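Please, structure for the following, as tokens.
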Amino acid sequence: MLETERLILRNGKQEDIHDFLGIRNSAFVLKYNAMEICDEEQLFKEISDNFVLERKFDHKIIGFIGIEKDMLRYGVTSACISYYLDEKEAKHGYMSEALKSMLSYLFEQGIEIVGARVFVGNDASVSLLKKLGFTHEGTLRHAVQGYGGIIYDDQLFSLLKEEWIK
């Protein structure tokens, strides 16, 4: 579990599922993520090994951060992050606050580089990553078929540990 000024980042629990399912399956979240609509069982598997964002003042679950092995790198200690917020909670600085804490945690755990992938057109996510110090490494054209059959170009970003510590 990690804490920030306004948030608790923790593994998802069974009791989070009902409230969180609407966020996860919303058009806002699905638009820029390579995910399909899921049911409660699938969602529990997804959140139990990753992090939900719980707002401290009302204990409402408002978002998600996923951590997985960076499949684009070999022989280095790396991770790839994914993230999303409830549309009503976007543009309040919650994800920036959560990712700052998560990045510090990952680098403290020995991760050397953190990657993130963002569909072209997801300008808010690109802006967030750049604000956090990530570097745009390139774009895979015609790379991912997202929700609704839309095919996206996929932008690759990374942040080295030494860049974060500066």
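Helices lie at 17-24, 27-31, 40-48, 94-108, 123-131, 161-165. Residues 7 and 58 are 10 Å apart (CA to CA).
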